[in-house]
């Protein structure tokens, strides 16, 4: 999975768009980083910027933005309603996909160290990147704000984690850290009553409600503090409000840790509370962007509740999530515009898999040498495991096999992962061929140019050999799934498992041909010997697996 992190820095300027533009230009100057949102506020005199990308690139973009903010914002003249302590007030990094919170915190420290050392800005680390418990909370660090920062820096307990302890009057101080993704989410009710919406919000949110006695007075503990009855969902903040535009009340929530309370669990708890109060949840609304996993997890959850296999395509999982959560009730919901990964997707880098079936066939049949046998082998392999996955999903729904749903769902999910890998390899093989062609076009007049061309050709050739080897490995793994379904799956679909096995073995053998032809003339003898040996081994195993699968299929067919 591609590593992605989001960065949501808050800059202490929300009125002068020319200043804001200079900061966002600094973000966009880093190729590979996608600027997703710019949200200025006049009253707060503060702008929230959202961008996303690979960790190293995001750290670079954040550094450039912080540097530019220090150049164009003078904190000694700043006034605004929102608490703040610096030109870049806070800069959180948020794991989106393929990266842990611990790894994200390490990137936050890389950024903090660089900002402190190169820009002479006092940096305090917070949340998952905090260096001590009392610095986890942003409000604690920011107490006293910009006006109290000079005195704070003289306190031995408040030495910055990075940078100088000297007051920087222009830039102030910056808080950098790593935190969970925050999802802004509203649940729609079939009522206009804010009081009833708030009652549901109190049932759901972590902070719950104040406990009262039979006379309606607040119950106090031994220290004189009010006693609270916690709500059902940890890491959830919620209130009820009425939206005149829609004519309904909503429960407005912030999910501050989607691992602790996923979106679908918060939705379900709202439904339970509403039902107890004679109110119905009619749908919901996502505010801003979400990681793809939020909707995939929701889709799996609702399929499992329906006693159905969760081993379906990504598109189907998201469709189920959107329908089950009612995300399109108030306005059309387009996952391509709401899911971070889809916004970042570069379809030009994978043109083949975005073609129609007819266009792909036409492109293959054209006079162009690519896509060729390697891409076709990967695609045939993808079709093979798709058949095996289909048998798993059909078996999960077979009458009388309810006790086996979890097993078949797990097999189908394995099949989906293999299918997705092979689909990516369709384009990867053609890209490997194009890499060789580009290397061949390199100049070779001088010795240096010849050396550079030779190096590029060697790298491209290795890649052109490694890609079909990866196709072979992946297709061989697919045969394990197909064999399981040939033996244990719905016997009425045995022939489908058989065809899947034929496709998988064909894909392995086709990719082996690609390995062999790409090895011809390559002067790295050791690499070639190892590649050919590995290809022969994989092909022999695929042939054995095919024989075993077809034997199991024949037993089911019986004629």
Provide an overview of this structure.
By secondary structure, the protein is an alpha+beta fold. The protein has 3 domains: 175 residues, Formiminotransferase-cyclodeaminase, Chain B, domain 1, CATH 3.30.990.10; 162 residues, 2-Layer Sandwich (Alpha-Beta Plaits), CATH 3.30.70; 211 residues, Four Helix Bundle (Hemerythrin (Met), subunit A), CATH 1.20.120.680. It has 17 helices and 13 strands. Strands 1, 2, 3, 4, 5, 6 and 7 form a 7-stranded mixed beta sheet that branches. It has a 4-stranded antiparallel beta sheet with strand order 11-12-8-13. A two-stranded antiparallel ribbon has the order 9-10. The longest helix has 42 residues. 44% of the residues are buried. The model has no long low-confidence stretch (mean pLDDT 93).
